[in-house]
Amino acid sequence: MDMIEILMDATVRAGTPILFATLGAILNERAGIINLGIEGLMLIGALAGFAGTFTTGSLFIGVLAAFTGAFIAGAIHGVITVQLRGNQIVSGLALTMFGVGITALFGRGMVGQTLEGFERVPIPGLESLPVIGKSFFQQDMLTYFSFLLVVLLTLFLYRTRMGMVLRTCGESPAAADTCGYSVSTYRFLAVAVGSGIVGIGGAYLSLATTPMWIENMSAGRGWIAVALVIFASWKTERALFGAYLFGGITAMQLRLQAMGTEISAHILQMLPYIFTILVLVISTLRLAKGSSQQPQALGLPYDREDRK
């Protein structure tokens, strides 16, 4: 039982940064904007979060800095794709390369520095529950916030007028425009705020998982999040399952390495990314059969002059 609890705890901690990134990407794509810059945004959030905390000593300011840094970077992507109607794929890839480069440049002086990261805060009464107690109710505040964020985003998208309009901008922007809503405003805000949420996922890496700055510490998690958006059918509640599924695979391969398995460490390190490819294949087949819930206007720029 102890082994199961340890594995589940590792699954939650490994899946949390991916969950933040996936939720942010879903918010982007629900509005109709593809963002392949998730990897770069996570790195920007990781560096900004670490730098903010290292400079001020406040974890809250660090998380706020991570959100702000990724928000600004995402806003650039929003201007290019929404206001200028530029190619969303190219802009997203450029954002990833920008994030990798700028964090390597400005993070050089912080390599090797450490700080006191987020500590576990047990929830009285729930932490002692068998199996799931330690895994879900003896975590840090950012993990608890990720639980809350899933609920808040689900309520926002499906129970509020603004959420309905945002989804309409991703399904039929002409319809939203006809009703008097600004498609460009909703899309821009969705991209910027969603990018900020991705940045918090990066901050989790540098403030909770490993409280230090390591160049390229996102290690491909951003690309996993991009695949998980499709796997989750653009639904926030399914993103929770998908993120922990990948977190479990990551935790499993680390546990197998620690146990001294005869399987090559290189093969074990490949497992999350092999699974990512499988997820993309399955998701593509679902798209081909028409069973996916992809926003109809995803990736399509909108110009009201072209409204039909």
| CATH class label | Mainly Alpha
Give the ordered list of helices and strands: HHHHEHEHHHHHHH
Major sheet description = 2 strands, antiparallel
Q: Could you give the order of strands across the largest sheet?
A: 1-2
Question: Mean pLDDT across all residues, rounded?
Answer: 90
User: How far is the first residue's CA from the last residue's CA?
Assistant: 61 Å
Helix run count: 12
Structure description:
This protein is mainly alpha-helical. The chain has a single domain, classed as ABC transporter involved in vitamin B12 uptake, BtuC (Orthogonal Bundle), CATH 1.10.3470. The chain contains twelve helices and two strands, in the order H-H-H-H-E-H-E-H-H-H-H-H-H-H. The protein has helices at residues 2-30, 38-56, 59-83, 88-106, 132-137, 141-159, 161-171, 173-178, 183-209, 221-231, 236-258, 265-288; strands spanning 121-122, 138-139. A two-stranded antiparallel ribbon has the order 1-2. Helix 3 (59-83) runs antiparallel to helix 4 (88-106) and helix 6 packs antiparallel against helix 11 (236-258). The protein is globular. The model has no long low-confidence stretch (mean pLDDT 90).
